[in-house]
Write a structure and sequence with these properties.
mainly alpha; 0% strand; flat; TatB; TatA/B/E
């Protein structure tokens, strides 16, 4: 429950609790808080039990953790046989290497290259227009 609290935070909480409640009332406050946490856990456990009993035998293996979207998706991806077959046939590392090679090496391999289409070459930089073709910019006209 408190896995993400470090030692410094814990010491800070203890010091603040001593300052706020005082050393005389602190044990009583701790007992009250732990009793409240126990009641909340018992209430949630009984609610889970009631929901499972109301759903019937069809949902005997139902877990409330499956309602978390990440857990639900992970479970569905791991149990679906068609997706397992697709995942095993798809090699992401190979695909990424192919794409990075294509991006880093703009010159195509002549043995593997197909005949180029009649369209413009997008990998080639356009030539700069000659000086006489450039339109002059007039700052006063704008």
């Amino acid at each position: 429950m408190f896995n993400d609290i470090g030692a410094l935070e814990l010491v800070t909480i203890v010091v603040l609790a001593i300052l706020v409640f005082g050393p005389d009332k602190l044990p009583k406050v701790i007992q009250d808080v732990t009793g409240f946490i126990r009641k909340v856990r018992a209430f949630s456990d009984s609610a889970k039990h009631d929901i499972r009993s109301e759903l019937g035998p069809d949902f005997k293996d139902f877990e409330f953790e499956d309602l978390n979207p990440k857990t639900f998706i992970r479970k569905q991806l791991s149990e679906n046989e068609d997706l397992k077959e697709i995942r095993s046939s798809f090699d992401l590392r190979k695909e990424l290497n192919d794409v990075s090679d294509a991006v880093n090496n703009p010159e195509p391999d002549p043995a593997a290259a197909a005949p180029a289409a009649a369209g413009p070459d997008l990998l080639k930089k356009p030539a700069a227009p000659a000086a006489e073709q450039r339109v002059r910019f007039d700052a006063d006209a704008t």
